[in-house]
Amino acid sequence: MKLSAACVVAVDVGSVRTGSFAWAAVDMPGHTLTAHGDDPAGAAGALSAALTDGASAVLALEAPMSVPVPGDWKLLGKGRTGEGNRAWSASAGAGALATGLAQGAWLLAEVARALPGLAATTQVSRWRGAADGGAPLLLVEAFVSGEGKPVPTALGPHAADAEAAARAVAARLAGEDGTDGTDMTCAPQRAFSLLAAQARWAGLAVAGDELALDVLVVRARPAG
User: Fold this and answer.
1) What angle do CA 186, 221, 94 make, to 5 degrees?
2) N or C: which end of the chain has fewer CB within 10 A?
3) pLDDT in tens, 116-142
4) Taking the model in full, what pTM does it have?
5) E strands, the chain, in order
């Protein structure tokens, strides 16, 4: 896959009814903001347009998108490695997870409807092999919180979060942020990939083993 023809669409998961939902798209490797909006249909359209034009694409959802399932029931709900005091199962994370499940499933179903037979993956190595028959759509989790929060723009704080997430994911995939791999992992517990489950529900082609594989989680870093 040529990174010069890639589009990253990041979604700040939130209530559509109250205007807390936003999305932003940046290109790679230039990281130019190419589109943004506050409606799920626009996000799905941006992804579909990029994939229709032959580019690879990335969907980054800002919500917990993989959860650890331990063998010992006493560890159920325990945070992922790298989360610190912001566990996926705490009130804010659990709320975002529930909302992100429905919104992510809807987005992916729209993309699947526009592009029947499309293959998706949660594994960067399989996405990078898209030119050789791999999956052109990569699904990742973004995390924008604390020091990584951007200064709200004229478009509002949710749009700013979406843009920050898109830029962080683009920088990670291009190897520009000095970090290798993921910022959070379910290991040593077994992972349940909500991204892979959403994609399979939506009708996208996803390898079966990805239901139990960790996803890439990118945390937005402080600007400067």
Assistant:
1) 40
2) C
3) 999 999 999 999 766 666 899 999 999
4) 0.91
5) 6-12, 22-28, 33-37, 56-61, 66-69, 120-121, 137-143, 190-193, 217-219
